[in-house]
Amino acid sequence: MALNGPPEDHREGSLEAPTRYPLAWREPEFYSEPALNAELARVFDVCHGCRRCVSLCNAFPTLFDLVDGSATMEVDGVAKEDYRKVVENCYLCDLCFMTKCPYVPPHPWNIDFPHLMLRAKATSYQSEGASVRDRLLSSPDVVGRIASVPVVASMVNRAAANRTVRRVAEKTLRVHAQAPLPKYQERTLRRRIRRRKATPIAALATPHTKGRVVLFTTCYGDYNEPEIGEDLIAIFEHNGIPVRVLEQEACCGMPKLELGDLGSVERLAQRNLPALARSAKEGWDLVAMVPSCVLMFKKEIPLLLPENPDVQCVAEAFYDPFEYLSLRHKARLLVTDFKNPLGKVMYHVPCHQRVQNIGPRTRDILSLVPDTRIEAIERCSGHNGTYGVKREFHEAAVKIGRPVAHRVAQADADYFTSDCALAGHHIEAGLNKSVKTLHPLRLLRLAYGI
Questions:
Q1: Backbone torsions φ then ψ of 240, nearest 5 degrees
Q2: Are 426 and 401 in contact (CB under 8 A)?
Q3: What is the CATH number of domain 336-448?
Q4: 437: enclosing H helix or E strand
Q5: Which residues make Cβ contacts (< 8 Å) with residue 183, sequence separation at least 6?
Q6: Is 282 exposed, middle or buried (0-12, 13-18, 19+ CB in 10 A)?
Q7: Burial class (CB in 10 A: 0-12, 13-18, 19+), 197
Q8: pTM (two decimals)
Q9: Does the N terminus or the C terminus of the chain have fewer Cβ atoms within 10 A?
């Protein structure tokens, strides 16, 4: 395919909605290093000539520095072994594909940068495996089950707060000593819910919602911040929406996806999909508090496992919490008996929520609270899953998130919030502690006074 210009029957850039194709990750050619390098060179050449995505993350500046520092100042001057430096700085946020690139399908140049990076990560994983650190960071369900055991949780949390232990961990596991680490809870969300007496509620359906919800608790929501799940349940029940928790679940697979371990993504999906599909077929909608988990079930797993009959059923039933509340508000069923204003709220929009194309639903719902002003920030936080805690990438993660932290610090706001709790805490680490950082569900619950 010629890359010196678009075909005559196509205008520069695509004006149509982007299209994504299933990943042929089971085909041997997918892992062919010569074929992969050829495609990387083709796509890098297009990116080098465009450079629209330079401000999104560290992958593109890394690529352009390699090109500009080469003998030819073109992609052909970059050593193939240096391609990995670009791949390692991509954390699959998807913003280049969804918001910047003019050459995404159906444009004939067919540029899908994130999924090409995923292919490169998968090829590397297949040939080299993963380090102990990366295996641990990509297994939050396994780590969470161990770290939330009574007594163990307090030991883990004390170790994470100890400077000496963190310095040792930086040298041995390459986990940056300054990176915020989540705390583990002995009383996980599932343990708390077991003691909860559910309020009997008659579900009221709308054209777009069943009016009753199954909560996918997520690793983070179960083991690290169960309060977010409690807030969601309280808010939904206040709005007449019955909530139950999925009887059994595993990690959504996003950390394994970022690692390129596609076999583990499939195995995790096979553990989750039957129960999720059964709930959807029984007339329950599905929600999760973490945008990345919602994205996995709505977008990524369908592209990895298009032949699985349960995949599309689950994808169609899955919602972001504020997307769901927005649909209820559209049907005039959202309770708006807010008792407490929130004042000025600086709201960070997570990348994995933006690329779901659901619109600014969190902002819209919080804006319904009287005497509340929401200022949205549509920039990457820099945390990006496991990227921000790794020794070799933490400084880049802080740099990427600095514009967000700067805006919040200058805003004199009452609250700072993000649908991604990890992103919120990453930004919080660089803020004046006088700014209260709370999840949007906690803010909404405060507004309701429940």
A1: 75, 25
A2: yes
A3: 3.40.50
A4: strand 436-437
A5: 157, 160, 224
A6: exposed
A7: exposed
A8: 0.91
A9: N
